[in-house]
Design goal:
This protein is an alpha/beta fold and 374 residues long. The protein contains 15 helices and 13 strands. Helix 8 (161-168) packs antiparallel against helix 10 (264-274). The longest helix is centred in the first third of the chain and has 23 residues, at 110-132. The mean pLDDT is 93. The structure holds zinc ion (ZN). Residues 181, 183-184, 186, 210, 212-213 line the site of zinc ion (ZN).
Length: 374
């Protein structure tokens, strides 16, 4: 393929001359840590079929992992975290207006969650692994939060909350903590009435309120014992991501966090949160291109579901819902690999966003459409 003719046209980026391939961003951390293994961490949304932006981020993770392996001679693993803690249903207290939410895990149960993961990502990830030779694993948030390392980080974050609260919630200092009701699984979205009764390195107790069952006490122990009264850890996005990244940093490998570039502002806060810990080493990060609608807003599942046409204008149906892809899942994987390979051909093409119209143009120019001659 003649990439000179079909490559995106991108302005010079601030890293031009310093970075030849976007994976080089992790080289300084690899040299400093001396690790011979790299674990890349990326997210998997199960609150609906993935849209093109999600697929671009995930395909980027596979290609960046393969390049890291080939360029730096390290072993690579791709670890996906499935967000089964995402809100599935919401209610409001008719008296106070307090918003309650029940997660996919609590509303649907573990078996149905595994089914959703298989439906949305199974074939796609298997195809990407087969083509790139990069192994991958998928762990749900529910599995992760039950492990002792996650519980220990949660407990430690409580002991540092005086400093963390203003980093994780700079406007008001309120970090939402909402352990779901042990009887029904509903939790206050913002944890307005959650109160930390006790917090130490070994265990913590949080008082919270359920709309139907009144007050309850959630107990978290550092050893993550499977006792019936062991709480499910529920917390806000930034706090939860801090805990995940702190757990990832414990691994005997360089942990690399892969996220869409729309996360850059939030990751600045996460980096500042890391600095609240002694001997802090910030996580290595790779940001991937965001896919935008014609309006410049990124594709978003909630806006797609809400039928906000200004946020989806100019998009083809399969770009908003991978389930509408007209070909096989292998063909979808090959299309994504071809597209993201173009984006990765120069850092300036990777450090920018793409409208769905421009994605369609690139796909046609590169002959990536199914049925197009190779
Ligand atoms: Zn309840």
């Amino acid at each position: 393929m003649n990439t000179a003719r079909i490559a995106p046209v991108s302005p010079v980026s601030v890293t031009t001359g310093a970075v030849e391939h976007s994976v080089d961003f992790i080289r300084p951390r690899l040299l400093a840590s001396g690790h011979d293994r790299v674990s890349l961490y990326a997210g998997v949304q199960i609150n609906g079929a993935p849209h093109l932006g999600t697929s671009v981020m995930q395909t980027s993770a596979f290609l960046l992992a393969r390049t890291a392996r080939d360029k730096f001679g390290v072993d690579v693993t791709l670890r996906f975290g499935a967000l089964d803690n995402a809100g599935c249903e919401t209610r409001r207290c008719p008296r106070t207006g307090t918003r309650y939410e029940r997660s996919f895990r609590h509303a649907l149960g573990g078996e149905r969650i595994q089914e959703l993961i298989r439906t949305y990502y199974g074939g796609f990830f298997d195809a990407l692994s087969a083509i790139t030779g990069v192994p991958h694993e998928i762990e749900t948030y529910t599995q992760q939060q039950s492990r002792p390392d996650f519980r220990q980080e949660f407990l430690e974050s409580l002991t540092r909350m005086d400093a963390l609260r203003w980093v994780l919630a700079p406007s008001h200092g309120k970090v939402p903590m909402s352990p779901p009701c042990p009887r029904c699984g509903w939790a206050q979205k913002q944890g307005e009435h959650t109160e930390v009764l006790a917090a130490g390195p070994g265990h913590a107790e949080l008082a919270a309120v359920c709309l139907d069952h009144g007050g309850y006490v959630a107990r978290v122990r550092a050893d993550g014992t499977d006792g019936a009264d062991e709480a499910y850890i529920g917390s806000g996005t930034l706090h939860r991501n801090l805990l995940k990244e702190r757990v990832a940093a414990r691994e005997d490998a360089l942990a690399v966090v892969v996220k869409g570039a729309d996360w850059a502002a939030g990751c600045r806060l996460l980096d500042e949160a890391f600095l609240c810990y002694p001997q802090a080493v910030l996580p290595a990060r790779l940001f991937t291109p965001v896919v935008l609608s014609a309006s410049g807003a990124k594709l978003s599942k909630s806006l797609i579901r809400a039928g906000r046409t200004e946020a989806t204008a100019g998009s083809e149906p399969w770009m908003l819902d991978a389930g509408a892809w007209p070909g096989t899942v292998e063909e979808y994987a090959r299309l994504l690999l071809g597209l993201v390979t173009l984006m990765l051909s120069e850092p300036r093409h990777f450090e920018r966003g793409y409208t769905t119209l421009e994605v369609a143009r690139l796909i046609d120019a590169a002959g990536l459409r199914i049925g197009a001659p190779a």
